[in-house]
């Protein structure tokens, strides 16, 4: 695909910007992953390895998922594959796993690529899978609770962020990332959502 086609389809004018998530991932790998001797420098202990790997998985998954999900919102793939998931304009928890089999395989790659690269302990793998399922169920729950992660974790999207994605149909919905909001902000695919939140904030102050 040519640079002009990328700009037209995805709004990417500088391909170097794609390297940003990789630089973050590289920093985490260097700082937190264990050496061949089994020690984790400068962190020590099993818990430090687990935490560093889980953080790595979330960042890498979010990056891969964003581009995979955005690709599914191109005309042909949306019509024949991704539209099944969007049958629910107001999703609930179980709809997080309601999708075309091809989509499950396609986007599921984003979840398994991190563990595939690092070969984690079985406990870490199960913990990652549990956290990932809980995250996607929460994002599709339709509820913003006082204890929702978005109230405590910076850049976390949550149900409100993903609800907007389901409410705006077809290719221009935006909010494509799975967990965090920085990818959509970086590539300008959350402009509609941010504009809506600004209007709601102004209207809220007027009442």
* H and E string: HHHHHHHHH
Number of distinct beta strands: 0
Mind telling me the C-alpha Rg? 18 Å
- The helix-and-strand class reads mainly alpha
Q: Give the overall shape, derived from the CA principal axes.
A: globular
**N- to C-terminal distance:** 50 Å
Stretches where pLDDT is under 50 for at least 5 consecutive residues are 9-44
Helix fraction by DSSP (H/I, runs of at least 4) = 55-70%
The number of distinct helices, counting runs of at least 4 residues, comes to 9
Q: DSSP strand (E) fraction?
A: under 5%
Q: What is the total number of structural domains?
A: 1
Question: How would you characterize the largest beta sheet?
Answer: none
Write the layout of secondary structure elements.
Blueprint: H1 3-10, H2 20-32, H3 46-72, H4 75-80, H5 101-118, H6 122-139, H7 158-167, H8 182-186, H9 191-205
Helix pairs in contact: 2-3, 3-5, 3-6
Keywords:
207 residues; mainly alpha
Describe this structure in words.
Helix content is 58%, strand content 0%. The chain is mainly α and 207 residues long. The protein has helices spanning 3-10, 20-32, 46-72, 75-80, 101-118, 122-139, 158-167, 182-186, 191-205. It contains nine helices and no strands. Helix 3 (46-72) runs antiparallel to helix 5 and helix 3 crosses helix 6. It has one domain (58-205).
